[in-house]
TrEMBL record:
Ranges of residues in domain Response regulatory: 4-120
UniProt-listed Pfam families: GerE (PF00196), Response_reg (PF00072)
4-aspartylphosphate carried by residues: 55
SUPFAM superfamilies: C-terminal effector domain of the bipartite response regulators, CheY-like
Highest taxon of the lineage: Bacteria
Protein known as: Response regulator transcription factor
Keywords, alphabetical: DNA-binding, Phosphoprotein
Domain HTH luxR-type: 142-207
Length: 219
């Protein structure tokens, strides 16, 4: 039987490129695609693929949430992250949520294919740049208080630093505006951040967001 794969990325052209690369491999078949975390969860439940390959930067809830929800529904799910984000903290988040592998989009195509083979064998896989980032971060002890944040606080920090208002974050995560503001206050205290701009720099440095994600807007 063919190895079934679910592709999750919000860009159709990118998904088409993945599909062509993957289906050149004998016995691999892309059986479904999704453009958001919610769609990924629905497609996984509908098709039960052997492997999920997903980006973390999705409209609405992030790929981290998609990983978490899929793994809650199926604890044996094999999920490989393929993302532009190369920060050690983001990779740790993905693994903590249940990812089996993490490959950066800056890697050669062969690294993605190698990681797919490894994850399908039940192994953990990382591209060279991700492994290097994690190793360097470990040596430097460079998490600057981010390890003290809860998964919800990390999600709120990522969304806020990526340019979303507190109101938009509240609506996306089904929280009250007051809860989001309270979380942001706790985050600032834990990280010693003086301003929203300082939070953005911390998030950028940790790889939670990329420079192209933008700056947070005030309500």
């Amino acid at each position: 039987m063919a190895t079934s794969i679910l592709l999750v990325d919000d860009h159709p052209v990118v998904r088409e490129g993945y599909r062509r690369l993957i289906e050149r491999q004998q016995g691999w078949e892309v059986i479904a695609e999704a453009e958001s975390a919610a769609a990924a969860y629905r497609q996984y439940k509908a098709h039960a693929p052997d492997l999920v390959i997903l980006d973390l930067s999705l409209p609405g809830p992030s790929g981290i949430e998609a990983i978490r929800h899929i793994r809650q529904w199926d604890g044996t799910a094999r999920i490989l992250v393929f993302s532009m984000r190369t920060g050690a903290l983001v990779a740790r988040q993905a693994f903590a949520a249940g990812a089996s592998g993490y490959v950066s989009k800056a890697s050669p195509p062969r690294e993605l294919l190698t990681a797919v083979f490894a994850v399908l064998r039940g192994e953990r896989a990382m591209s060279a740049d991700i492994a290097r980032a994690i190793a360097q971060d470990e040596v430097a002890g460079g998490r600057a208080g981010l390890d003290d944040l809860t998964s919800r606080e990390l999600e709120i920090l990522s969304l806020t630093a990526g340019g979303m208002t507190a109101q938009a974050v509240a609506e996306m995560l089904c929280l009250s505006l007051k809860t989001v503001h309270n979380n942001l206050s706790v985050i600032r205290t834990k990280l010693g951040a003086r301003t929203d701009a300082h939070l953005v720099w911390i998030a950028l440095g940790a790889g939670l967001v990329s420079p192209s994600d933008g700056l947070p807007r005030r309500e």
